[in-house]
């Protein structure tokens, strides 16, 4: 693997498979243990540097590093009046002085982790940058699909909703394509980014047409906080055309699964009865996030078993 994990394209098929296989081995190693800890990163320091609010990702990375016995520093950087580039560089120099072996960064500016990686000697993991990428989310999603369906090659994955603002969608399209899955994006035309035609995915606008041919349906959160204009007429209209309810779920093949990166807008992009159904992997995704991020930190920071 490369020294940093900044985007899904940093992983070729062998690297991505190695992460998934390592996560599976970690799950197996911890399964029988009363104390859910491995000594592999003892003496290493991991800094969680979050410029944006996060619950699942921040806690998941913190737990992952602690379960590998690393020292963890949580740095919540909010409300800085310094321009993003300068404040990030100042912080990077501070982390460098502390001797951080790994920096997990979430930032509202797309590309911020790339800048950080040029300033620090340790490994940088992108935990989400603007509307750009979120590679570890794509890894945990791929791990969850493989765990449920037993394969990734040839799996038909439909990603639905606010693709325009979704770093999760960007990372998933790239990684799932690398791992041999067939990806289709379904969204209102206003919520598809410019240049989406060059992505390794099919694009459609009719959710009902693709559901019977989908092994996986990944619903995206409508990111109202990133919208400064009206991208669709109303929440009700969006839900009617692009929401996954029990009727639509019934159109899926028998073994198909439903995913969501969270947090969910229940009743908008996904109905409560779907989110809580046996087809849903939403809780599993959170649990798999810890083992997948443990695998990433282990492989990047060179822990010795």
Q: What is the C-alpha radius of gyration, as a whole number of Å?
A: 19 Å
Number of domains: 2
Estimate percent helicity: 25-40%
Topology-level CATH name of the largest domain: Rossmann fold
> Average pLDDT value?
91
Number of strands: 9
Taking the alpha carbons of the first and last residues, their distance comes to: 17 Å
**For the record, what is the CATH homologous superfamily label of the largest domain?**
Aspartate/ornithine carbamoyltransferase
Shape: globular
The structure class reads alpha/beta
CATH architecture of the largest domain: 3-Layer(aba) Sandwich
Widest sheet, order of strands: 7-6-5-8-9
Query: In DSSP terms, counting alpha (H) and pi (I) runs of 4 or more, how many helices?
Result: 11
Element-level helix/strand string: HEHEHEHEHEHEEHEHHEHH
CATH level 1 name of the largest domain: Alpha Beta
Low-confidence stretches: none
Proportion in β-strands: 5-15%
Strand count, sense and barrel status of the largest sheet are:
5 strands, parallel
């Amino acid at each position: 693997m490369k020294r940093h994990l900044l985007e899904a394209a940093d992983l070729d098929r062998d690297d991505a498979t190695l992460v998934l296989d390592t996560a599976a081995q970690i799950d197996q190693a911890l399964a029988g243990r009363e104390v859910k800890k491995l000594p592999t990163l003892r003496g290493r320091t991991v800094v969680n540097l979050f410029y944006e609010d996060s619950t699942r990702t921040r806690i998941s990375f913190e737990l992952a590093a602690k379960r590998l016995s690393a020292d963890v520093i949580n740095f919540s950087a909010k409300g800085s009046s310094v321009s993003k580039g300068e404040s990030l560089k100042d912080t990077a120099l501070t982390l460098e002085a502390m001797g951080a072996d790994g920096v997990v960064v979430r930032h509202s500016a797309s590309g911020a982790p790339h800048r950080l990686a040029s300033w620090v000697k340790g490994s940088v993991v992108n935990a989400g940058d603007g509307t750009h990428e979120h590679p570890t989310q794509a890894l945990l999603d791929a791990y969850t699909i493989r765990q449920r369906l037993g394969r990734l090659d040839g799996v038909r994955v439909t990603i639905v909703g606010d693709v325009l603002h979704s770093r999760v969608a960007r990372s998933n399209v790239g990684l799932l394509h690398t791992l041999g899955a067939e990806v289709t994006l379904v969204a209102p035309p206003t919520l598809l980014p410019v240049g989406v035609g060059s992505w390794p995915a099919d694009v459609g606008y009719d959710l009902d047409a693709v559901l019977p041919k989908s092994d996986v349906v990944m619903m995206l959160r409508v990111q109202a906080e990133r919208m400064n204009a009206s991208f669709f007429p109303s929440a009700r209209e969006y839900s009617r055309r692009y929401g996954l309810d029990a009727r639509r779920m019934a159109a899926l093949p028998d073994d198909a699964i439903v995913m969501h990166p969270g947090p969910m807008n229940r009743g908008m992009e996904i109905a409560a009865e779907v989110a809580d159904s046996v087809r849903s992997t939403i809780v599993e995704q959170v649990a798999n996030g810890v083992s997948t991020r443990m695998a990433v930190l282990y492989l990047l920071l060179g822990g010795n078993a």
